[in-house]
């Protein structure tokens, strides 16, 4: 996969893309990453990428000319056009399913806003407009890093464990079960005995029940969607009936 970014602060990506999983993905040839500086497509001595908004108001708005010129140059004559992604409050909420959708693409170009916003005409370039949530960040660079990380970890060969992406929270529809490692006893806090039993069937069931219980307690909305999709087994439903009514009683399909 080729991922490119267009922003006024391309060096913000240096540490994130040069460490850990992102670095390994590039070393393996699974990911190619390029960060473009929007200021390279400006034509004044100050390399201006923003201006005052028409109609007045606080803040500055990113200009449309350099963005259009940059996209045209980045695309060049390549017949395989990338999917162009914006990060903005009006976008589709980002979730694991959306990350999976983007991971199927061969080429993504993230256009990152800054300041008060982006000239509305620029959104005519968009294939995707994504929102991370109901809050404001300093820049689109930060938001794009989150999306890129979530997407790249889904590419085959990026994670060390083949089943890693399958068991993670949200991928299955439930929150992930608790994880433990050595020592078995730390300051009186012991690893659940079932995990040291060697009985893989019991371990699998314990993990499933822990995922169900954790999701019912912390994200009942996820459990309701999981139940509505017909994903609860008879054993799941029996287990959920044993939980406190406040945790599972309102979940559709569990009565």
Describe the structure in your own words.
This protein is of the alpha/beta class. The protein folds into 2 domains: 151 residues, 3-Layer(aba) Sandwich (Alpha/beta knot); 77 residues, Trp Operon Repressor, Chain A (Orthogonal Bundle). The chain has 10 helices and 10 strands. A 5-stranded parallel β-sheet has the order 2-1-6-5-8. β9 and β10 form a beta hairpin. α4 packs across α5 and α7 packs across α8. The protein is elongated and about 70 Å long. The protein starts with a strand and ends in a 7-residue tail after the last helix. 23% of the residues are buried.
Shape: elongated
Please name the CATH architecture of the largest domain.
Answer: 3-Layer(aba) Sandwich
Show unreliable segments: none
| Total helical elements | 10
In terms of DSSP E residues, the strand content is: 15-25%
- Helical content band: 25-40%
Count the E strands.
10
Distance between the termini: 46 Å
Strand order of the largest sheet: 2-1-6-5-8
Global structural class:
alpha/beta
CATH class of the largest domain: Alpha Beta
Rg value: 23 Å
